[in-house]
C-alpha cells in the first residue's frame, strides 16, 4: 500500500522541490527565453527557495512513500487599502508543479485544497494566481479549482 500525503514542506524536501523547480523553469525558459534564465542550477534554485521561505513564502508538498513528487509555493500578500480599494489579505499561489508520474491523479487539486485551508488560517480572504498564456494546463487546473479571471495583463516586448 502506497503512503501518500499533502503537507507543509520540510527542510528535507527542499532538494526535491528545487529539482522540480528546475524542470518547471526549463519549460518557462524554452517558451519565454527573454524572461526566464536557462543557466540556473538546482543548487541555485534550492538557495532561491530557501530565501523565499525565509521571507515568508510557504510550501506545500505531496509525498508518496516519503518522496516529494509535487509542490505548491505560496505567500501572503497584505494589501493596504487606499481611496479606491479596501484593505485585504490575499494568498498568492506562486508556483505549482506535479511530477509527470503523479499527474492526472488529483494531486494538484489536493494541494490546492490544502493551500486554501492554510490561507484561510492565515486570515486571507481570497487567493490569486497568474499563469503564462502558453500554459493551458495551468489555466484549466486553476479554473477547475474554482478560480475565475478577474484581471488581464497584457505585455509587449520592446
From TrEMBL:
Keyword Transferase attached: yes
Domain N-acetyltransferase: 12-158
GO MF term list: acyltransferase activity, transferring groups other than amino-acyl groups
InterPro entries: Acyl_CoA_acyltransferase, GNAT_dom
Keyword match Transferase: yes
Keywords, in A-Z order: Transferase
Source superkingdom: Bacteria
Protein name as annotated: Acetyltransferase (GNAT) family protein
Amino acid at each position: 500500500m502506497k503512503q501518500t500525503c499533502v503537507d507543509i514542506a520540510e527542510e528535507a524536501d527542499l532538494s526535491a522541490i528545487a529539482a522540480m523547480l528546475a524542470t518547471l523553469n526549463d519549460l518557462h525558459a524554452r517558451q519565454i527565453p527573454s524572461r526566464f534564465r536557462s543557466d540556473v542550477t538546482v543548487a541555485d534554485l534550492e538557495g532561491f527557495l530557501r530565501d523565499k521561505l525565509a521571507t515568508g513564502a510557504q510550501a506545500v508538498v505531496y509525498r508518496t512513500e516519503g518522496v516529494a513528487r509535487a509542490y505548491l509555493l505560496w505567500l501572503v500578500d497584505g494589501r493596504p487599502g487606499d481611496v479606491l480599494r479596501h484593505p485585504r489579505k490575499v494568498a498568492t499561489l506562486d508556483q505549482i508543479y506535479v511530477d509527470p508520474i503523479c499527474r492526472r491523479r488529483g494531486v494538484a487539486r489536493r494541494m490546492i485544497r490544502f493551500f486554501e485551508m492554510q490561507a484561510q488560517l492565515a486570515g486571507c480572504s481570497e487567493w490569486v494566481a497568474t499563469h503564462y498564456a502558453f500554459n493551458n494546463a495551468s489555466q484549466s487546473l486553476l479554473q477547475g479549482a474554482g478560480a475565475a479571471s478577474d484581471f488581464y495583463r497584457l505585455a509587449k516586448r520592446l
